[in-house]
Amino acid sequence: MEKVAVIGLGRFGIGVVQELMQIGYDVLAIDKKELMVNEVVDSVTHALILDSTNKDALIQAGLKTFQTAVVGIGENVEASILTTLMLKEIGVEKVISRAITNYHGIILDKIGADKIVYPENEIGIKVARAIANPDLIDFIEFGDRLSIAEMQVSDNMAGKSLSELQLRNKFNVNVIAIKRGAQTNGTPGPDDVFERGDTFLVSGTPKNISQLKNA
Amino acid sequence: MEKVAVIGLGRFGIGVVQELMQIGYDVLAIDKKELMVNEVVDSVTHALILDSTNKDALIQAGLKTFQTAVVGIGENVEASILTTLMLKEIGVEKVISRAITNYHGIILDKIGADKIVYPENEIGIKVARAIANPDLIDFIEFGDRLSIAEMQVSDNMAGKSLSELQLRNKFNVNVIAIKRGAQTNGTPGPDDVFERGDTFLVSGTPKNISQLKNA
Ligand SMILES: Nc1ncnc2c1ncn2[C@@H]1O[C@H](COP(=O)(O)OP(=O)(O)OP(=O)(O)O)[C@@H](O)[C@H]1O
Ligand SMILES: Nc1ncnc2c1ncn2[C@@H]1O[C@H](COP(=O)(O)OP(=O)(O)OP(=O)(O)O)[C@@H](O)[C@H]1O
Q1: CA distance B73 to B83
Q2: Which of B6, B11, B30, B32 has most ligand 2 atoms within 8 Å of CB, for mutation?
Q3: Chain B contact for A132, CB < 8 A?
Q4: Domain check: are B63 and B96 in the same one?
Q5: Residues B120, A121: Cα–Cα separation, whole Å
Q6: What CATH number is associated with residue B196?
Q7: Which helix (H) or strand (E) holds A165?
Q8: Rounded distance, CA A164 to CA A187, Å?
Q9: Ligand 1, pocket residues at CB < 6 Å
Q10: Are residues A28 and A86 in the same domain?
Q11: N or C terminus of chain A with fewer C-beta within 10 Å?
Q12: Which of B15, B94, B100 sits opposite A121 (nearest CB)?
């Protein structure tokens, strides 16, 4: 069974732990505070109270046998950096570390973190984009010329068919799928009508997608 | 010019502020700590030091004239809840509030937050999924039967053409686009070859996409 060590059981670390358990991984959850470890001890494979900046403690905890570890320590930048270094020195193949500033990320990169995550920043960007485009639920930016967006049907669009809205001609976007409740239509046609409450997947340039609020 | 008030200049709030400024909004940045406000005072439209749980202070700051506000206060759950309530009472049309636990979110919902965001949790889930699928960069889940994933080309796939890999026949997924450096191929054909370093967009069921590591 595949296993992952997650060090630092703040909100980010807990998010990782819960999803990994849900996916079916064995999880070793580590934190220096007993309180945090007690929060998870009943829902994870193993939980240990230890200071992850202590290399011997990590080795004793069996970290040499882990291929993947997540460093969820945030605000304590020094501990985040030291822990990342210790894990690489112990030989953990893939260390995913969280950074809370750009410089924090640069340092983690230099000391060997295999992947760096900026959680608050990424979501801050999504929230800002959703403000700029209230019907935008989620998106993937694939280069700067192609985005895939999950959007909700606006009041303007509700009750109109795809051909009526002329999304391809007017906006140069492609509707990939439409979802109504639990039903997904993966091959939307020109006569399909958008109903209030529907969500849809659309592809196009970021600019064209943002124009859809004028549909 | 469209304007947004962002209250609470922690890492999440700062992420929202920076992206909103980048998009072109006017931003009023508010925090009770002078230190946080000073961090942004040179890069935002307006910055104010005030306690957002104080309704009069919010009114004096002009919040009645804002249609949109983001409550980026996290750990201080009481302040997050009070601030959200104050903003709705003042008449701010759209209040987007951050929650740090499920119950926090439930309370925010009951007192009128128009949208609730769980930043650390959302990214925690993405990190966990990326661990389960190391070539996965980003994804949108559209219902439980359709996902769009941004992936990097695995060692197995590198040097092989789409027809060679038989992605549609074997895995029932559709490659939407392939990116190589700054070039994007939005109409990939059967003879297109995946090269090391390429990333691609693919659609299919979550299960089929996760099978791609066996391609
Ligand atoms: N040296 C260490 N060894 C083990 N755990 C640590 C160490 N330093 C910090 N932690 C733990 O990491 C967890 C997350 O901590 P921290 O306060 O650094 O980040 P945070 O940014 O507030 O986290 P989040 O936003 O995810 O809640 C805490 O539970 C803390 O006890
Ligand atoms: N009543 C208040 N009025 C204005 N600002 C506040 C109030 N309460 C908290 N803040 C500010 O909100 C910001 C974010 O605070 P908080 O400590 O609650 O969250 P956090 O979870 O640590 O944030 P992040 O993870 O985004 O860094 C802080 O800068 C804090 O000064």
Answers
A1: 9
A2: B32
A3: yes
A4: yes
A5: 10
A6: 3.30.70.1450
A7: helix A162-165
A8: 17
A9: A 7-13, 31-33, 36, 51-53, 72-76, 79; B 120
A10: yes
A11: N
A12: B15
Of A113-117, A159-163, B1-5, B55-59, the poorest mean pLDDT is in: B1-5
pLDDT exceeds cutoff 90 at B44: yes
Q: How many Å apart are CA A181 and CA A185, to the nearest integer? A: 11
Sequence letter at residue A66 = F
What average pLDDT does the segment A131-153 reach?
Answer: 90
Find the mean pLDDT for residues A181-188.
92
Q: pLDDT at residue A89 above 90?
A: yes
Contacts of B151 in chain A (CB under 8 A): none
The reply to whether B25 and B76 lie within a common domain is yes
Domain span holding position A153:
123-214
Q: Give the integer Cα–Cα distance in Å for B53 and A9.
A: 29
Contacts of B23 in chain A (CB under 8 A): 128-129, 132
Q: In angstroms, rounded to a whole number, what is the distance separating the alpha carbons of residues A185 and A191? A: 13
Structure tokens at B166: 């038989």
Ligand lying closest to the C-alpha of residue A35: 1
Instruction: Say whether B52 sits in a helix, a strand or coil.
Output: coil
Average pLDDT over residues B39-68: 97
Lowest mean pLDDT among A121-135, B52-66, B98-112, B147-161: A121-135
Q: Are residues B78 and B142 in the same domain?
A: no
> Looking at the structure, do residues A193 and A135 belong to the same domain, yes or no?
yes
Interface of B with A in 30-49 (CB under 8 A): none
What local confidence, expressed as pLDDT, does residue A1 receive?
64
Q: Are B28 and A133 in contact (CB under 8 A)?
A: no
DSSP-derived 3-state class of residue A59: helix
Q: Which residues of A touch B25 (CB under 8 A)?
A: 128, 131-132
* Chain B, nearest residue to A134 by Cα: B94
d(CA B8, CA A4): 34
Q: 3-class DSSP state for residue A77?
A: helix
Q: Each residue of A190-201: pLDDT tens digit?
A: 999 999 999 999
The total number of structural domains in chain B stands at 2
